[in-house]
Automatic annotation (TrEMBL):
Record's GO cellular component terms: cytoplasm
EC number: 3.2.2.27
Pfam families: UDG
Source organism: Paraperlucidibaca baekdonensis
InterPro entries: UDG_fam1, Ura-DNA_Glyclase_AS, Uracil-DNA_glycosylase-like, Uracil-DNA_glycosylase-like_sf
Broad class of where this protein is predominantly found: cytoplasm
Protein localization: Cytoplasm
Listed GO biological process terms: base-excision repair, AP site formation via deaminated base removal
All residue ranges annotated as the Uracil-DNA glycosylase-like domain in the record: 51-212
Keywords: Cytoplasm, DNA damage, DNA repair, Hydrolase
Protein name: Uracil-DNA glycosylase
Catalyzed reaction equations: Hydrolyzes single-stranded DNA or mismatched double-stranded DNA and polynucleotides, releasing free uracil
Length: 225
């Protein structure tokens, strides 16, 4: 695993690969594949979020739960789907809020790589999932690994905007020092949560850009997909 994590992240969280929980996670993933289960995303894209956004360039963090479990959807970035895939409901709601908040046309491509290139770390808490079975790889060790990534950003960077949508992501907020960083919380954009209120009108995208500009950092072009 460590060989596919980029050097800039290895310097900060590479020691996690020597921990017992990571060996247990390796064994679990090997057993999943040997049992004939398909695992998403493809192993080459497991650490795609870290490759797409180097440690020193992270300006915004969007925390997801686990990858999409449908065929061809997950490609290693939270909330993002590979080009050509139909937009999942949560992503449609994200795009609706961007359009309303920033007064731009809603994006049509679900590939959020352009956000990652601008410094938005699109990090799922759990980095793999069994095909067709949501949450099937939770509590196998990934949460500890991604906690370590968030803790490293918290301790060694300043002024990052963390977007925590829904209770699951907000629990990760316990790792973040609000004196060093900015934390915005809202309901999860999934239809079930968003339609109960707290997502539409949250204006996280314009608020994020205001916070970035205040620290002389370029705004994110949320429509550039």
């Amino acid at each position: 695993m460590v060989a596919v994590l980029p050097a800039c992240w290895q310097a900060h969280i590479g020691d996690e690969f020597t921990q017992p929980y990571m060996q247990s996670l390796r064994d679990f993933l090997r057993a999943e594949r040997e049992a004939g289960h398909r695992v998403f995303p493809p192993s080459a894209q497991c650490f795609a979020a870290f490759h797409a956004t180097p440690f020193a360039r992270v300006r915004v963090v969007i925390i997801g739960q686990d990858p999409y479990h449908g065929e061809g959807q997950a490609h290693g970035l939270s909330f993002s789907v590979a080009n050509g895939q139909r937009l999942p409901p949560s992503l449609r709601n994200i795009f609706h809020e961007i359009s309303s908040d920033c007064q731009v046309a809603a994006p049509t491509s679900g590939d959020l790589s352009a956000w990652a290139a601008q410094g938005v770390l699109l990090l799922n808490s759990v980095l793999t999932v069994r095909a067709g079975e949501a949450a099937s790889h939770q509590r196998q060790g990934w949460e500890q690994f991604t906690d370590a990534a968030i803790a490293a950003l918290n301790a060694q960077r300043e002024g990052i905007v963390f977007l925590l949508w829904g209770g699951y992501a907000q629990r990760k907020g316990q790792l973040i020092d609000r004196q060093r960083h900015h934390v915005l919380t809202a309901a999860h954009p999934s239809p079930l949560a968003a339609n109960r209120g707290g997502w539409f009108g949250s204006r996280h995208f314009s608020q994020t850009n205001a916070l970035l500009r205040a620290q002389h950092s370029p705004a994110i072009d949320w429509a550039a997909l």
